[in-house]
Amino acid sequence: MNPISLFCILAGVALNATAQLLLKAGTNAVGHFDFTMSNIIPIGWRIATQPPIIGGLTCYVLSVVVWIVGLSRVDVSIAYPMLSLGYVVNAFAAWYLFGEVLSAQRLVGIGVILVGVFLVARS
């Protein structure tokens, strides 16, 4: 994989991970809610107008564009497993930004993901 192809794949992963973090920040701002017939429109509006959620959806759109460029250059059997790096990025970012727990079991899982991505990338 050449540097431009790697950049496209990693940029797609980074945009996708950023989208998830922004969506989480937006839902944190909205808070816990129950979907009922009486609140579906007010909650839907509140969700749709949260700047982090709008930013997250924008990142998703950009990630798809960058991902398509990456897929035009890299085999999907190599590119798709790279998306797993988003799990690693999000786990550490959620720990840092939102105070989520990184237990030993999660860290072992992250290690397994990293080994798997390394093996696929080297194939």
Automatic annotation (TrEMBL):
The keyword Electron transport does not apply. Its main location: membrane. It comes from the Bacteria. GO terms for biological process: lipid A biosynthetic process; lipopolysaccharide biosynthetic process. It is a multi-pass membrane protein. GO terms for molecular function: transmembrane transporter activity. This is EamA domain-containing protein. It comes from Paraburkholderia largidicola.
